[in-house]
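TA notes, week 10

Several of you asked for a full example with nothing omitted. So below is the full record: C-alpha coordinates for the whole chain, then the designed sequence directly under it. When grading your own attempts, check the secondary structure regions first.
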Protein backbone atom coordinates (compact mmCIF):
# COMPACT_ATOMS: atom_id res chain seq x y z
CA UNK A 1 0.00 0.00 0.00
CA UNK A 2 1.26 3.54 -0.62
CA UNK A 3 2.45 5.59 2.30
CA UNK A 4 2.84 9.27 3.04
CA UNK A 5 5.54 11.11 4.93
CA UNK A 6 4.33 14.46 6.21
CA UNK A 7 6.39 17.13 7.92
CA UNK A 8 4.64 19.25 10.57
CA UNK A 9 6.31 22.30 12.12
CA UNK A 10 5.81 22.98 15.83
CA UNK A 11 6.19 26.32 17.66
CA UNK A 12 9.40 26.78 19.64
CA UNK A 13 9.32 25.60 23.23
CA UNK A 14 11.86 25.69 26.04
CA UNK A 15 11.23 23.27 28.91
CA UNK A 16 13.04 22.96 32.22
CA UNK A 17 13.48 19.40 33.38
CA UNK A 18 15.58 17.48 35.85
CA UNK A 19 17.15 14.06 35.79
CA UNK A 20 14.95 11.66 37.74
CA UNK A 21 16.35 8.23 36.88
CA UNK A 22 19.11 6.54 34.91
CA UNK A 23 18.91 2.97 33.63
CA UNK A 24 21.77 1.15 31.93
CA UNK A 25 20.33 -0.55 28.84
CA UNK A 26 23.63 -1.98 27.63
CA UNK A 27 27.27 -1.11 28.28
CA UNK A 28 27.60 2.46 27.01
CA UNK A 29 23.89 3.05 26.52
CA UNK A 30 21.74 4.67 29.19
CA UNK A 31 18.09 5.65 29.43
CA UNK A 32 17.45 8.96 31.15
CA UNK A 33 14.10 9.74 32.65
CA UNK A 34 13.64 13.51 32.73
CA UNK A 35 10.82 14.99 34.77
CA UNK A 36 9.34 18.47 34.99
CA UNK A 37 11.29 20.91 37.13
CA UNK A 38 7.94 22.66 37.72
CA UNK A 39 4.46 21.30 36.98
CA UNK A 40 3.34 22.16 33.45
CA UNK A 41 6.80 22.27 31.82
CA UNK A 42 5.79 19.52 29.38
CA UNK A 43 2.39 20.99 28.59
CA UNK A 44 1.70 20.71 24.87
CA UNK A 45 4.64 18.38 24.26
CA UNK A 46 4.02 16.06 21.29
CA UNK A 47 6.33 13.78 19.34
CA UNK A 48 4.21 11.63 17.03
CA UNK A 49 6.92 10.81 14.46
CA UNK A 50 9.33 7.87 14.76
CA UNK A 51 12.42 10.05 14.66
CA UNK A 52 11.09 13.09 16.51
CA UNK A 53 13.83 14.66 18.57
CA UNK A 54 14.67 17.43 21.01
CA UNK A 55 17.71 19.58 21.64
CA UNK A 56 19.08 19.17 25.14
CA UNK A 57 21.34 21.55 27.06
CA UNK A 58 22.91 20.29 30.25
CA UNK A 59 25.28 21.63 32.91
CA UNK A 60 28.58 20.00 33.79
CA UNK A 61 28.70 16.21 34.18
CA UNK A 62 29.00 16.81 37.92
CA UNK A 63 25.54 18.46 37.82
CA UNK A 64 24.61 22.05 38.51
CA UNK A 65 22.62 24.70 36.75
CA UNK A 66 22.20 25.34 33.04
CA UNK A 67 23.15 28.95 32.31
CA UNK A 68 20.39 30.98 30.65
CA UNK A 69 20.43 34.26 28.76
CA UNK A 70 18.15 37.18 29.67
CA UNK A 71 15.34 35.65 27.56
CA UNK A 72 15.57 32.33 29.38
CA UNK A 73 17.24 30.61 26.43
CA UNK A 74 19.94 28.18 27.53
CA UNK A 75 23.56 29.02 26.82
CA UNK A 76 26.04 26.32 25.93
CA UNK A 77 26.20 23.50 23.45
CA UNK A 78 23.09 21.45 22.78
CA UNK A 79 22.85 17.85 21.67
CA UNK A 80 19.98 16.30 19.72
CA UNK A 81 18.31 13.19 21.15
CA UNK A 82 15.35 11.11 19.98
CA UNK A 83 12.22 11.16 22.12
CA UNK A 84 11.83 7.50 23.06
CA UNK A 85 8.85 7.94 25.38
CA UNK A 86 6.94 10.69 27.14
CA UNK A 87 3.79 11.29 29.14
CA UNK A 88 2.59 14.82 29.63
CA UNK A 89 0.11 13.83 32.37
CA UNK A 90 2.78 12.03 34.35
CA UNK A 91 5.32 14.71 33.48
CA UNK A 92 8.21 12.70 32.07
CA UNK A 93 10.32 12.38 28.95
CA UNK A 94 12.73 9.48 28.26
CA UNK A 95 15.92 9.71 26.19
CA UNK A 96 18.34 6.89 25.33
CA UNK A 97 21.89 8.21 25.16
CA UNK A 98 24.96 6.54 23.74
CA UNK A 99 28.00 7.16 25.95
CA UNK A 100 31.50 7.27 24.48
CA UNK A 101 34.74 6.82 26.36
CA UNK A 102 35.72 4.71 29.35
CA UNK A 103 33.72 4.53 32.56
CA UNK A 104 34.68 7.53 34.68
CA UNK A 105 36.25 9.26 31.65
CA UNK A 106 33.20 9.54 29.42
CA UNK A 107 33.50 11.84 26.42
CA UNK A 108 31.22 14.49 25.03
CA UNK A 109 28.65 16.90 26.40
CA UNK A 110 25.56 14.76 26.75
CA UNK A 111 27.40 11.43 27.03
CA UNK A 112 29.40 12.38 30.12
CA UNK A 113 26.35 14.02 31.68
CA UNK A 114 24.18 11.01 30.92
CA UNK A 115 26.70 8.73 32.57
CA UNK A 116 27.60 10.77 35.64
CA UNK A 117 25.28 13.67 36.49
CA UNK A 118 23.66 13.28 39.90
CA UNK A 119 19.94 12.60 39.96
CA UNK A 120 18.14 15.91 40.26
CA UNK A 121 20.52 17.68 37.85
CA UNK A 122 18.95 20.34 35.65
CA UNK A 123 18.51 20.10 31.87
CA UNK A 124 16.76 22.30 29.36
CA UNK A 125 14.96 20.68 26.45
CA UNK A 126 13.97 22.54 23.28
CA UNK A 127 11.56 21.22 20.67
CA UNK A 128 10.62 19.08 18.91
CA UNK A 129 10.64 21.85 16.34
CA UNK A 130 8.66 19.60 14.05
CA UNK A 131 7.55 16.09 13.35
CA UNK A 132 7.89 13.71 10.41
CA UNK A 133 4.89 11.40 10.41
CA UNK A 134 4.68 8.23 8.37
CA UNK A 135 1.15 7.11 7.53
CA UNK A 136 -0.07 4.11 5.59
CA UNK A 137 1.78 0.85 5.04
CA UNK A 138 4.85 0.85 2.81
CA UNK A 139 5.17 -2.40 0.88
CA UNK A 140 8.88 -2.53 1.64
CA UNK A 141 10.82 -0.74 4.36
CA UNK A 142 14.54 -0.18 4.57
CA UNK A 143 15.71 0.88 8.02
CA UNK A 144 19.45 1.53 8.26
CA UNK A 145 21.03 2.90 11.42
CA UNK A 146 24.12 3.14 13.55
CA UNK A 147 24.05 3.16 17.37
CA UNK A 148 22.94 6.77 17.63
CA UNK A 149 19.83 6.04 15.54
CA UNK A 150 18.79 2.82 17.28
CA UNK A 151 16.22 4.67 19.44
CA UNK A 152 14.56 6.03 16.30
CA UNK A 153 14.59 2.60 14.64
CA UNK A 154 12.92 1.11 17.71
CA UNK A 155 10.15 3.68 17.45
CA UNK A 156 9.70 3.13 13.72
CA UNK A 157 9.48 -0.63 14.25
CA UNK A 158 6.81 -0.16 16.90
CA UNK A 159 4.85 2.20 14.65
CA UNK A 160 5.13 0.04 11.52
CA UNK A 161 3.89 -3.06 13.36
CA UNK A 162 4.58 -6.78 12.96
CA UNK A 163 3.29 -7.09 9.39
CA UNK A 164 6.03 -5.14 7.59
CA UNK A 165 8.52 -6.61 5.15
CA UNK A 166 11.89 -5.26 4.14
CA UNK A 167 15.45 -4.85 5.36
CA UNK A 168 16.84 -3.83 8.75
CA UNK A 169 20.51 -2.89 8.56
CA UNK A 170 22.18 -2.07 11.87
CA UNK A 171 25.82 -1.02 12.25
CA UNK A 172 26.28 -1.78 15.91
CA UNK A 173 28.28 -3.64 18.52
CA UNK A 174 25.26 -3.73 20.82
CA UNK A 175 22.87 -6.61 21.13
CA UNK A 176 19.84 -5.00 19.47
CA UNK A 177 17.50 -7.00 21.75
CA UNK A 178 19.06 -5.39 24.83
CA UNK A 179 17.98 -2.04 23.41
CA UNK A 180 14.44 -3.27 22.82
CA UNK A 181 14.81 -3.73 19.05
CA UNK A 182 12.31 -6.41 18.04
CA UNK A 183 12.35 -6.87 14.25
CA UNK A 184 9.13 -7.94 12.58
CA UNK A 185 9.34 -11.50 11.17
CA UNK A 186 9.20 -10.19 7.61
CA UNK A 187 12.41 -8.15 7.97
CA UNK A 188 15.79 -9.41 6.78
CA UNK A 189 18.19 -8.36 9.54
CA UNK A 190 21.86 -7.56 8.90
CA UNK A 191 24.13 -6.68 11.81
CA UNK A 192 27.17 -4.85 10.46
CA UNK A 193 30.43 -4.35 12.31
CA UNK A 194 31.28 -0.68 12.86
CA UNK A 195 34.67 0.57 11.69
CA UNK A 196 35.73 3.49 13.91
CA UNK A 197 37.77 4.96 11.03
CA UNK A 198 34.92 4.73 8.54
CA UNK A 199 31.69 5.04 10.53
CA UNK A 200 28.55 4.29 8.51
CA UNK A 201 30.58 2.96 5.56
CA UNK A 202 29.19 -0.54 6.20
CA UNK A 203 25.66 0.85 6.15
CA UNK A 204 26.28 2.62 2.85
CA UNK A 205 27.71 -0.56 1.28
CA UNK A 206 24.83 -2.71 2.52
CA UNK A 207 22.26 -0.22 1.24
CA UNK A 208 23.97 -0.06 -2.15
CA UNK A 209 23.80 -3.85 -2.46
CA UNK A 210 20.01 -3.95 -2.08
CA UNK A 211 18.04 -4.48 -5.29
CA UNK A 212 16.20 -1.50 -6.73
CA UNK A 213 12.52 -1.46 -5.80
CA UNK A 214 9.93 -2.88 -8.17
CA UNK A 215 7.74 0.09 -7.20
CA UNK A 216 9.59 3.11 -5.83
CA UNK A 217 6.39 4.50 -4.30
CA UNK A 218 6.21 1.45 -2.02
CA UNK A 219 9.71 1.67 -0.52
CA UNK A 220 10.21 3.71 2.64
CA UNK A 221 13.84 4.41 3.54
CA UNK A 222 15.16 5.58 6.91
CA UNK A 223 18.95 5.81 6.87
CA UNK A 224 20.70 7.68 9.67
CA UNK A 225 24.20 7.49 11.05
CA UNK A 226 27.44 9.42 10.77
CA UNK A 227 27.27 12.47 8.46
CA UNK A 228 29.08 10.66 5.62
CA UNK A 229 25.98 8.50 5.11
CA UNK A 230 23.96 11.37 3.66
CA UNK A 231 25.43 12.03 0.20
CA UNK A 232 25.73 8.40 -0.99
CA UNK A 233 22.28 7.45 0.27
CA UNK A 234 20.69 10.47 -1.39
CA UNK A 235 22.40 9.43 -4.62
CA UNK A 236 21.09 5.89 -4.14
CA UNK A 237 17.56 7.20 -3.62
CA UNK A 238 17.92 9.00 -6.94
CA UNK A 239 18.95 5.76 -8.66
CA UNK A 240 15.99 3.97 -7.06
CA UNK A 241 13.60 6.72 -8.18
CA UNK A 242 12.66 7.69 -4.62
CA UNK A 243 12.08 11.37 -3.87
CA UNK A 244 14.34 12.39 -0.99
CA UNK A 245 11.34 14.10 0.65
CA UNK A 246 9.70 10.67 0.97
CA UNK A 247 12.65 9.31 2.92
CA UNK A 248 14.51 10.13 6.14
CA UNK A 249 18.24 10.43 5.54
CA UNK A 250 20.24 12.29 8.17
CA UNK A 251 23.66 12.67 9.69
CA UNK A 252 23.14 12.11 13.42
CA UNK A 253 26.71 12.99 14.33
CA UNK A 254 29.97 14.00 12.70
CA UNK A 255 33.26 12.20 13.20
CA UNK A 256 35.95 14.54 14.45
CA UNK A 257 39.59 14.10 13.50
CA UNK A 258 41.59 12.36 16.26
C1 LIG B 1 17.90 13.82 14.79
C2 LIG B 1 18.94 13.24 15.73
C3 LIG B 1 18.58 12.30 16.69
C4 LIG B 1 19.53 11.76 17.53
N1 LIG B 1 19.14 10.84 18.46
C5 LIG B 1 20.06 10.31 19.32
C6 LIG B 1 19.66 9.39 20.33
O1 LIG B 1 18.48 9.09 20.51
N2 LIG B 1 20.64 8.88 21.13
C7 LIG B 1 21.97 9.21 20.98
O2 LIG B 1 22.81 8.71 21.72
N3 LIG B 1 22.37 10.09 20.03
C8 LIG B 1 21.44 10.65 19.22
N4 LIG B 1 21.84 11.56 18.27
C9 LIG B 1 23.26 11.94 18.23
C10 LIG B 1 23.54 12.99 19.34
O3 LIG B 1 23.03 14.25 18.91
C11 LIG B 1 25.01 13.22 19.71
O4 LIG B 1 25.78 13.41 18.57
C12 LIG B 1 25.62 12.15 20.49
O5 LIG B 1 24.79 11.87 21.62
C13 LIG B 1 27.03 12.52 20.95
O6 LIG B 1 27.02 13.67 21.78
P1 LIG B 1 28.09 13.84 22.93
O7 LIG B 1 27.91 15.20 23.51
O8 LIG B 1 28.04 12.67 23.87
O9 LIG B 1 29.48 13.72 22.19
P2 LIG B 1 30.22 14.81 21.27
O10 LIG B 1 30.77 15.91 22.12
O11 LIG B 1 29.33 15.20 20.15
O12 LIG B 1 31.42 13.92 20.72
C14 LIG B 1 32.42 13.35 21.59
C15 LIG B 1 33.26 12.39 20.79
O13 LIG B 1 32.49 11.22 20.48
C16 LIG B 1 32.44 11.02 19.07
N5 LIG B 1 31.11 10.52 18.74
C17 LIG B 1 29.93 11.21 18.82
N6 LIG B 1 28.90 10.44 18.45
C18 LIG B 1 29.44 9.23 18.13
C19 LIG B 1 28.88 8.00 17.67
N7 LIG B 1 27.56 7.84 17.46
N8 LIG B 1 29.73 6.97 17.46
C20 LIG B 1 31.07 7.08 17.67
N9 LIG B 1 31.65 8.23 18.11
C21 LIG B 1 30.85 9.29 18.33
C22 LIG B 1 32.73 12.39 18.45
O14 LIG B 1 33.28 12.27 17.15
C23 LIG B 1 33.73 12.96 19.43
O15 LIG B 1 35.03 12.49 19.18
C24 LIG B 1 20.89 12.15 17.43
C25 LIG B 1 21.25 13.13 16.49
C26 LIG B 1 20.29 13.67 15.64
C27 LIG B 1 20.70 14.72 14.63
Amino acid sequence: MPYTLTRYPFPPAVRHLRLAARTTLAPGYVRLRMVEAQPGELEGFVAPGGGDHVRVVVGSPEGGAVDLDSDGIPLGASRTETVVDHDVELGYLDLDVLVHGDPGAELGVIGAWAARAPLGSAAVVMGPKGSVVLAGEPGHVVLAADDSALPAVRRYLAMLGPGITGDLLLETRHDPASLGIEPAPGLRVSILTPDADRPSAALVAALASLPAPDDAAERFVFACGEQSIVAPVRALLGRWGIDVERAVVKGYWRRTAD
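The chain has a mean pLDDT of 96. Use that as a sanity check on your answer.
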